[in-house]
Amino acid sequence: MLKQFYHAIFVLLLFVMPLYCDIDISIVKKDGAFNINASFSTDASFEEVRKVLVDYENIPKFASSVVKSKIKTRENGCILLEQVGVQKIVQFFSIKVYLLLKVEETRNKIVFEDVSKKDFERYVGYWEINEVSSNTVTSYSLSVKPAFYIPGFIAKNIFINKSKKMCQDILDEINRRKKETRRISKIRRVYC
User: Fold this and answer.
1) Which of 23, 71, 118, 147 has its CA 20 to 30 A from that of 101?
2) What is the rounded average pLDDT for all residues in the chain?
3) In 106-147, which ranges are E strands?
4) What domain range is 171 assigned to?
């Protein structure tokens, strides 16, 4: 009995504790919605960062919480992107969420909004890329309000941990591609 109690406490601590420390992140609850802001910096170029962020159909290959990401339409500068995500709540329980994102891109900003309203009453946000000195700073903002009941303290921890994990997955992919590009570039210089 005591062993089960300690196991439950351990799982809760893992659930509540921040997962990553190189991602700056904040979360505020206002009017029933959670407003999340995150940012990270890399020495990858602006173009390298942007290529990862707009690689919509390959997102499931590097973002662990996304199991499906498919472009439904692309017209008049607007993309309709269908996504299915899975969020692990505790060891043996996870939830699946559906998003139909209307995505609009400018050079340094990607704005998105869930238009399906299936699992979220509100799901609106953006990615923004800026060059600062010799680094590229990527900012993420999301205002999210679930369409289902979930206790506030649990939702807050889910959204902050999911956002940190997603930003870390994207940063890892940016760095992986940067290294691969630079490796290929060195090989070309040697053989050309």
Assistant:
1) 23
2) 85
3) 109-114, 120-132, 135-146
4) 29-178
